[in-house]
What does this fold into?
Amino acid sequence: MTHRFNLVRRAEASHSYGFVMLFVVATIILAVAIPESSPWRALIVVCQAFAAVIACWTSDAPRRVFRVVLIFSSLGVLSAIGLGVFGSTNSVAGRAVNVMGVIVVAAVIIRGITLDIRAEGVRGRAVAGALTIYLLFGTFCGFVYGLEESISTNPVLHASNSTLNDDGSTSANMYFSFVTLTTVGYGDLTPVSGGARATAIFEALVGQLYLVGIVATLGGALGRGKGGLRKELAPQTVGAPPTNSDG
It folds into this structure.
């Protein structure tokens, strides 16, 4: 019992966002793998709820924040189950629940990373949290494409050949989102609506700037103490070139 308690305390003290990242990856896999008409799509929201709760736990969120996240997560799970049984998880309401779930998890992680950096500087858990935010951003955009598909009367994505699925399924939307986020650009799916094109541009730009700006900066300040990030962001001064004197 004591050994098990110590393991829990060590996991809590580590503030590792690795468990959150696992649930985010599980969300992505389930969104791609589970058929659109299956009531088991409620598991996507369950994974998001677990990610939000664990993010609160690892970031030492105040009790009031933890309560709000717990209530929101419970309502999200109940809504997803209800939509899976009596409605459709690919409806506007179902996809809106997915979008809000991603926003809640991201907000909790961002708050935790900010407080952690202020208290102890950049450590490995801050970088792991930043990478989790990157995955959440791709997930968020995938759900946004689906939400637009549910709202719009016209197709959002177009497949270049008949072997692909462009019927607005979450699988196709999530696939297109991460292809766009990583700027791979296979070209097998292309946005055809104005909203989808705007979202694709926003996703590609923000995704690359985030990696180059935020993640690279945190990586450069890793292990340099509380002032490491400030030093990393400080402008580099270039000394005057040496002069040669003849005399």
Summary: The chain has one domain: 11-153+168-178+191-233. Residues 8-14 have pLDDT under 50 and may be disordered. The chain has nine helices and two strands.
